[in-house]
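Pipeline run #58 for the internal structure catalog. This entry was flagged by the ingest filter as a single-chain record with no existing model, so it goes straight to prediction. Upstream metadata was stripped on purpose; only the residue string is passed forward. Reviewer on rotation: M.T. Logging verbosity set to normal.
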Amino acid sequence: MKVEDFVKILGAEFYAGVPDSQLKALCDYLTNTFGVDGNKHIIAANEGNCAAVAAGYHLASGKIPVVYMQNSGEGNIINPVTSLLSPQVYAIPTIFVIGWRGEPGIADEPQHIHQGAVTLTLLDDLGIENFVVDSKTSVDELQNVRADFQTLLNRGGQVAFVIRKNALTYENKVTYSNAYKMIREEIISLIAQKAGSDIIIAGTGKIGRELFEVREKLGQGHSQDFLTVGSMGHASSISLGLALEKPAKNFWCIDGDGAFLMHMGAAAIIGAHSPKNFIHIVLNNESHESVGGIPTVAGKINLPLIAEACGYKYTNSVANIDALKKCLGELPAVPKPAFLEIKCALFSRKDLGRPTISPIDNKKNFLQKLGI
């Protein structure tokens, strides 16, 4: 189905979401049509943030908002759905559009399998009536479902359209870019070499994939790396737990800007506990690159200043290779926790592989490295 038809049938004037590759057609359409800086389309920090912003829009307008996300974000909406949007609380009608990763019977990455299996069950448990859209869904069929959903929305209920792979199409090309030149995989290689025998925790998305490939190229093993393949935004919290429990070891967390924004409160906890063996690096390409390159707000805020305010003892930002090499040389000796923002270019090479070890094996090897 053409995304233009899908949007017309939804009949909404406001969208808030966290980008998803399964919803790329919708994300590109919204970005092309409304941009990302206005009041019709908000790219939020996380899915709960989306739901709350949508609630504010409804309270101000009386109209029905749309919240879009990958199904991995269902966990982040449980609280606002049950304690804010619910017909038993404020009865705020909301249309959810959810990309279905890990659908049973469809090959996908390990971090999507469990979530994919419980996607519809979670919606049912939350009282969210749902309909699955696939490539064969007709405009007439979707119009009928939308009409049926209106009764629930009129009562202050929530409904969801769950989108299968390739269900939505968009013919217009949207090009995403930024002003930075440093290539992320080359940056990660420099970090890995500087970290030496220290432990690295890689954030969700392409960071872990590139770190795995860097180790392969350097002829190194993978046991000192924890690859956070799912649980977006939580790599820094995992790192904090490790650093506090193992004060004799040094830990480097390599985060993405979208992940850092998603659960930015973690930075305050890190600063407050102030581990002296923790370096937090955010690779900032101002985008949700792993799901298509849709912009984040990380280009409009001062990440090092935020980290400093949260209690990090050292903060810095670099945007070229010479400054990066100089900073990496200084990092081991600076006060900790340390925070480094590295501004980098968008996109990876087209033949970038994926880790050839399972998450379970990654964990086993990692525990052995830690002597557990």
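catalog note: The first helix runs from residue 3 to 10.
catalog note: The two ends are 52 Å apart (CA to CA).
status: ready for reviewer M.T.
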